[in-house]
Automatic annotation (TrEMBL):
Molecular function (Gene Ontology), one example: DNA binding
Key words, A-Z: ATP-binding, Helicase, Hydrolase, Nucleotide-binding
A single GO BP: recombinational repair
Organism per entry: Streptomyces tsukubensis (strain DSM 42081 / NBRC 108919 / NRRL 18488 / 9993)
Protein name according to UniProt: AAA family ATPase
Secretion signal span: none
Length: 688
């Protein structure tokens, strides 16, 4: 213990020196460069590095150690010892460059996560360190360590581990620990199957189907950090996006990447990512279903290209057969309709983005004019070409055959008259909405109040008009809930990158939620991506998993049930009279224990419960949340009180899926309170 503490002290001193060194380098760097631009780039890099180092929350600097070889022969390179931690720490002075702590993402660390009695990988001892819970500012306190002798495995204590060994007591304690604040990193306890996913090649897209609490979100975030470490150039400058279901979820996960030293990742909801406008109106469920349907991709493409006139409409009236006349000094060059129609048709066939298509038509038309001019009166230079491209007749011709259009203008015009053969009359009526008449000035479209689904359609149109800049990698959480059109919005942004798709078909609650992964992956532009299934749950106690699994056969999806790695926890299911009073009593008792508490109920019931909890809630402060069932996706609380499951199940079309989400949020204790009979799926399994 003394030696390990001394090593930790050495690491702390080295980290402080590294942070000071980074600050000093900024000062030196700013003076050493002749070019201001170079100094600026270097300064930016150094400042970020200094910030990352200064951002250290003060926790333990390592969580494990690997001893390779037989440990006797110091000259044998295999007889080496490495400490592993959240970030690399190198020694000062003569030790500079020698890692005191190896980053958990380094290739060597893979051995820490993957080695086991069946496959020791040259490891003699794997040590896990136990630390007292810490808060920012306090020194980290080593409380113990645990050695696994992988070269001579003996029977270990505790439940068996999937990798062939015993489940480490330190890992078990970490899993049982009450949840207090936002989500934390899992670097110390990544499981082998999670490590495989985290370290998949950057170019590979992957899909993880995992029961609730199997660590999908944790895997996605650690994969993001891993990719940034292995491909810093490609991904560090805004090239990595994490998409989550809502802002509450984002604030729950937002500290994980910074705590791993990664501060530059964009974390967003899809709505925020694509929003060109604020949402100002609501669709009927029918209209939303039509707008999110996969057919809308072709429908919108047709609507946009219906603006392109197949045969030039004679923008500049001229002699019969002449569709365009371009004055040029004392000459007038004429192009006939057939040539122009050929140009337009040719560009359409090439299928460039709409805006590129317009420019392509422009330059080909001018090329024809140039050829005609040069045949008569010699070469024309670049200046002539530019002038002709900007000339009034050419502009008028383009406006007639390939008019400029904004996504807003195209969508408003389409919704005012959604006459596409792919939509039946009922569907057209559902989405029809009066809009500014065709041909209105772009300003007329600014006052339109868009719905959330309209924003998705605007994004589609915007992608048809101009290719959006993409990301090198996108992590998509709760991907089962994405509509076909939302999937396309993500696919567009990952056209040249890869995807980590995370989700659970059983937790699909949107009307368009996926029922199988192959189709969803095809919509995401990644057909054929392998699907990895996770079933080992780290969140819920066994009894809670059993209760929730009772719903699975009714959810209409083919997913294996979760099994829990946890041994603690409590479940109570109680029929009560007077839900509000029973909730207050349950919360009062829950607050006597450590950790967060959530009361989850059908939307309309939450206000009533909040009122009933009034003074108690004020006393509990941030420890207590009262939430509608629709707002808990991806979140977890130490103690959950679920109020009236039947009301949650009846509140929406996929109410049983919602109930499944709600019942799977508890880390330590779940109280189910009901007045009405429980949904039948819960009655057999509920009492434990
Ligand atoms: N290897 C691990 N070691 C310790 N804790 C872990 C590990 N993997 C996951 N966890 C913890 O288990 C809990 C559930 O993980 P996470 O939220 O990532 O699951 P999920 O599959 O995304 O769940 P859901 O489907 O409900 O969104 C979290 O508290 C997470 O930190």
């Amino acid at each position: 213990m003394a030696r390990e503490r001394a090593h930790h002290d050495r690491c702390r001193a080295a980290l402080t020196a590294m942070a000071a060194g980074a600050v000093e380098q900024i000062a030196v760097g700013e003076h050493a460069f002749a070019s201001g631009a170079d100094a600026e780039v270097l300064g930016y890099e150094l400042r970020s590095r200094a910030r990352e180092l200064a951002d250290d929350p003060g926790g333990p600097l390592f969580f494990g150690r690997l001893d390779f070889g037989d440990g006797e022969d110091a000259g044998d390179h295999r007889a080496r010892r490495y400490y592993l931690g959240r970030r690399r720490i190198t020694g000062p002075g003569p030790e500079a460059g020698i890692p005191l702590v190896v980053d958990w993402r380094a290739p060597l660390a893979r051995t820490f996560y993957q080695a086991g009695p069946r496959d020791p990988r040259g490891v003699r001892i794997r040590r896990r360190h136990g630390w007292a819970p810490f808060s920012t500012g306090d020194p980290a306190e080593l409380t113990g360590f645990e050695d696994e002798h992988l070269d001579a495995p003996g029977p270990g204590p505790g439940p068996a581990d999937a990798s062939g060994g015993a489940l480490s007591a330190i890992v078990a304690a970490e899993l049982e620990r009450p949840r207090i604040g936002p989500m934390r990193d899992i670097t110390a306890t990544i499981r082998p199957e999670q490590d495989d996913l985290v370290r998949s090649a950057a170019a590979d897209s992957l899909c993880v189907q995992g029961a609730p609490g199997t660590g999908k979100t944790a895997v996605g975030l650690h994969r993001a950090a891993y990719l940034l470490y292995t491909h810093p150039g490609k991904l560090r400058s805004g090239g990595l996006l994490v998409i989550g279901p809502d802002r509450a979820f984002l604030s729950y996960i937002e500290r994980v990447l910074p705590s791993l030293g990664e501060t530059g990742v964009r974390q967003s909801t899809l709505v925020d990512e694509i929003a060109r406008h604020a949402v100002g109106a609501e669709d009927t469920p029918r209209a939303a279903a039509v707008k999110h349907d996969a057919r809308m991709a072709d429908v919108l493409r047709r609507a946009l290209y219906s603006r392109v006139a197949a045969v030039p409409a004679g923008a500049a009236a001229g002699a019969a057969g002449t569709a365009l006349t371009v004055p040029d000094g004392s000459y007038r060059w004429r192009l006939d309709a057939e040539v122009l129609a050929g140009i337009v048709a040719g560009v359409r066939e090439e299928e460039p983005p709409y805006a590129t298509g317009r420019e392509r038509v422009r330059s080909r038309v001018v090329r024809e004019v140039q050829l005609a001019a040069e045949r008569r009166s010699g070469p024309r230079g670049a200046g002539w070409v530019r002038r002709t491209e900007r000339s009034r007749p050419v502009g008028a011709f383009l406006d007639a055959v390939w008019p400029q259009v904004s996504p807003e203008e195209a969508l408003a015009a389409f919704l005012a008259d959604p006459a596409d053969p792919a939509l039946d009359p009922g569907e057209r009526d559902a989405i029809r909405r009066p809009g500014p008449p065709r041909g209105s000035s772009p300003r007329a479209y600014r006052s339109v109040r868009w719905t959330a689904a309209d924003l998705v359609l605007l994004d589609e149109l915007s992608g048809l008009i101009e290719r959006p800049p993409g990301y090198g990698h996108i992590v998509v959480d709760e991907a089962q809930d994405l509509s076909p059109m939302e999937c396309r919005a993500i696919a567009r942004r990952a056209a040249f990158g890869s995807l980590t798709v995370l989700g659970d078909l059983a937790q699909g609650t949107t009307p368009w939620a996926a029922r199988d992964w192959p189709r969803q992956l095809a919509l995401l532009g990644r057909a054929g991506t392998p699907v990895t299934v996770l079933t080992t749950g780290f969140r819920m106690p066994r009894a809670v998993v059993r209760l929730a699994n009772g719903l699975l056969p009714s959810l209409g999806v083919d997913v294996p049930p979760a099994r829990s790695l946890r041994y603690g926890g409590e479940l109570t299911v109680r029929r009560v009279t007077g839900l509000a009073a029973a909730t207050v009593a349950a919360v009062r008792s829950a607050l006597t224990r450590e950790g967060t508490v959530a009361v989850i109920a059908a939307g309309p019931d939450t206000d009533r419960l909040r009122t009933a909890l009034g003074p108690l809630a004020a006393e509990a402060g941030e420890r207590l949340s009262v939430l509608p069932a629709t707002a808990v996706k991806g979140l977890e609380y130490d103690h959950v009180v679920v109020v009236e499951p039947a009301a949650i199940a009846a509140a929406e079309e996929r109410g049983l899926h919602r109930l499944y989400v709600v019942l799977t949020r508890a880390v330590s204790r779940l109280d189910v309170l009901h007045e009405r009979p429980l949904p039948p799926q819960l009655t057999d399994t509920g009492r434990d």
